[in-house]
Amino acid sequence: MSARPELRAPPEIFYDEGEARKYTSSSRIIEIQAKLSDRALELLALPDDGIPRLLLDIGCGSGLSGETLSESGHHWIGLDISQAMLNVAVEREVEGDLLLGDMGQGLALRPGVIDGAISISAVQWLCNADKSSHNPRLRLKAFFGSLYRCLSRDAKAVLQVYPENLDQRQLILTSAMRAGFAGGVVVDYPHSSKSRKEYLVLTCGPPSLSASSVPNGIGEDGGSSDEDVSDDEETQVISAGDRQRPRKRQKLNWKVRGREWILNKKEQMRRKGNVVPADTKYTGRKRKARF
Amino acid sequence: MKLLTHNMLSSNIKGVTAGYPLLIEPQIITTTEVPINPNFLRHIFPKLDYSALVAAAKTLGFSDLPETAGVSDLEDEGFLKRFNHALLELKLEAGALVCPESGRRFMVSKGIPNMLLHEDEV
Predict the structure, then answer these.
(1) Is the pTM of this model over 0.95?
(2) Is A274 exposed, middle or buried (0-12, 13-18, 19+ CB in 10 A)?
(3) Which among A28, A265, B5, B30 is placed 20 to 30 Å from B43, CA to CA?
């Protein structure tokens, strides 16, 4: 099996005319892309009110994923770095508007205008430095920062990614969190190396504490599980960061604290007739924390 | 490229603060027919910069849009028709988009604007 596409050439060179032709002729590729796009749109969970939305397709390539959006009645803007792939999209007369651009340079869109974003198999390209001027961290920062800005409140972004390893996965996730996104990773078919697919589901509003904001992944039996993640690990939902760290619970109750309170209590007990040690300078003294 | 997209595009060259709206230098303009969807038009109207849309439509040769419009206009069928035409039916096939602050030109060919920045602009 040859090396990952990301390690063979930069995307604008890898996706040349020959590669782009596959996206018109290979039914297998078309089928896979359609399935991924359907799932991403499903995870986007747009309101079912019949109002078309303005969506973003990041790394739209030949427009296959965009067609899924058009079929659901939405308008979309697609961004891709490969002219060859965009030419295929023009040939296929896709309904969305296409932009030739590099997502690592930032999305050149006004704040708060996009109702949702999807990306199929594209964002992991940012993790590789294809030019000496590239710094993956800065490119991820530019991408996620501009994505966060251009999305409207309550909008979501669903990014299907192929991270090479755990480090890349972490890198992508932390870059997203730093930009202000909340959300998690949905993994479909986690145990099948062939079918396994990861979707980063990011939300723009304040982080919701309930896990229901991030849907469950699909297990091997093809059905989705509604129960909590069990040890069986059919589905995996990894929730990433509330930006607030969990606060340490302080078991201090201010009403029952302090030397005065102790002295009062001892007096009460003495009146009752209990045997109570004498009050000395040691009563209610501050102890060392480890005590 | 439809004017819907143009209305959302901004120049993100390093150091540029007033990069919106991009000025249009049209060379080839086409028109398609798009059925009117009042739901979408009403949904997208508050997100648009309406004056930028009017100015852009004028450079593409369409001056029938009123200079200002409010939410009440969205109930008027005549306005919806012209609004739909300007937003979704007019297309820039070839030409250039110009950053209003730096003058940098982004070429448009086959309806696709080239928004790739040079290394010193990032």
Answers:
(1) no
(2) exposed
(3) B30
